[in-house]
Amino acid sequence: MHQSFYVTARVTCDRGHEHPLCVQVRRQVHPSLRCNPTGGGVSSGHGASHCQLPDDLRSRVEYELRENFEEARRRGWVAIAA
Fold first, then answer.
1. Which helix (H) or strand (E) segment is 78 a member of?
2. What end-to-end distance do the CA atoms of the chain give, in Å?
3. Please, where are the H alpha helices in the chain?
4. Residues 34-41: contacts with CB within 8 Å, 24+ apart?
5. What is the mean pLDDT of residues 29-35?
6. pTM higher than the cut 0.85
7. Side by side, which strands form the sheet with 5-12?
8. Closest C-alpha to 64, from 41, 49, 51, 82
9. How far from the centroid of its chain's Cα atoms is residue 27's Cα?
10. Residue 9 reports pLDDT greater than 90
């Protein structure tokens, strides 16, 4: 059985807006970075429709978890620049 994991991320789009998201990933997530989606693989805060989210959002989040885990854990979310 496949288990889903969700991580808290904040995407800063090219317009400078920051969007809090809950992104599904393929790996276990530290409890301090977990979130509960409100439907689908990505759920967002207000205004995400005004900015284009990256097509490879999940890959970017997984990369940040691998490369910058301690920084993400310190903040409580994964930072993504779009």
1. strand 78-81
2. 33
3. 57-67, 69-75
4. 34/5, 34/6, 34/7, 34/8, 35/6, 35/7, 35/8, 36/6, 37/6
5. 94
6. no
7. 42-44, 18-25, 5-12, 78-81
8. 82
9. 13
10. yes
Phi, psi of 79 (to 5 degrees): -95, 130
**Quick one: which of 58, 68, 53, 80 has its CA closest to 5?**
58
- Mean pLDDT, residues 26-55 taken together: 75
Amino acid occupying residue 18 = E
Q: Please indicate whether residue 14 or residue 1 has the higher confidence score (pLDDT).
A: 14
Rounded to 5 degrees, φ, ψ at 43 are: -120, 145
- Which positions ≥6 away from 65 have C-beta within 8 Å? 7, 25, 27, 29, 33, 72, 78
Q: Contact, 76 vs 5, CB < 8 A? A: no
Sign of CA dihedral 44, 49, 52, 56: positive
